[in-house]
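User: Could you go from structure to sequence for me? I need the amino acid at each position, not a summary. Structure tokens:
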């Protein structure tokens, strides 16, 4: 992809829609563009986060063990951010993240991610909204599961 193509792709993602053009260009230049084939591992359990992945295209699957022995699985697709929870919390990854389809991703290094959070309020707010949406979906799923066993 060219820089212009990368910028168009990033601008289309909700996470970056409010980001000023110079910061978006910095992100496109400093982020590492990666490609993963179906079945290829993006994240291994126990790894420390050295940055976050933004899925530019494709679909990934999270898998983690449950106390029942079976794996809990869920998918994320284009526009999703991965690794931010581990990075922000300072905890290791709990499960694996694998490409389900061909995936194009932008890896934002830890230092750049934190700089953007501190200097671009629109980006910080977009990350907060994304996290809040995921927490809401998680709580909803947990409550529904508890209701099913009550």
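Assistant: Here is the amino acid at each position, in order:
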């Amino acid at each position: 992809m060219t820089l212009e193509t990368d910028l168009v792709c990033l601008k289309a993602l909700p996470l970056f829609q409010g980001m000023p053009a110079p910061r978006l260009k910095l992100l496109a230049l400093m982020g590492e563009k990666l490609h993963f084939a179906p079945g290829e591992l993006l994240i291994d359990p126990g790894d420390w986060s050295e940055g976050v992945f933004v899925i530019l295209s494709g679909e990934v699957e999270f898998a983690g063990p449950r106390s029942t022995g079976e794996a809990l699985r869920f998918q994320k697709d284009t526009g999703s951010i991965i690794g931010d929870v581990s990075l922000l919390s300072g905890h290791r990854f709990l499960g694996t993240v694998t490409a389900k389809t061909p995936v194009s991703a932008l890896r934002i290094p830890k230092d750049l991610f934190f700089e953007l959070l501190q200097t671009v309020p629109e980006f910080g707010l977009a990350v907060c909204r994304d996290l809040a949406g995921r927490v809401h979906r998680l709580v909803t799923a947990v409550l529904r599961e508890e209701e099913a066993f009550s």
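One structural detail worth keeping in mind: The first helix runs from residue 3 to 11.
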